[in-house]
Write the structure tokens for this entry.
Amino acid sequence: MCWRDHLHQTLKRLSKGEHLPRLAVVGIGNELRGDDSAGLLLARAIQQHPGRNGRLMAVEACSAPENFVGTLCRFHPDLVLMVDAARMEEQPGEIRWLDWKNVRGLKLSTHTLPLNIFASYLIAEMGCEVALLGIQLADTTFDSPPCPAVLKAVDAIFDELVREDIE
């Protein structure tokens, strides 16, 4: 199943009658490391295009998403979607819906707290669901720009999230 299908099915399942789910996007990465900035670029794009109905928000968490627990708690999301560059043995720019519980087995960017611990904490504290989107990176050389395939992936995720927020 593709990442779009996972996203739509999760949001549909979280819809309860007239209650539409609230989605918090946590952009993770390092903007000085080329493709590792993918999650941050997505968060910035969402922040510059606020949702019409207040159901979508984003934070640029860099390498310390745990610093934004308070912001996330105040938003009361039904779903926290972590977005990070990942080494998944795919073509650059490939997007995958990943199981955050198995994040130890992936070569994700360096974080101050492992994403599986962060996700477990969010679930325990807020009762929300947590998901992880990985974007296959190509180059994390210091001070390099993100590659075109990764930028295209960021745009695709942005378009899907904004469309979901409007509907």
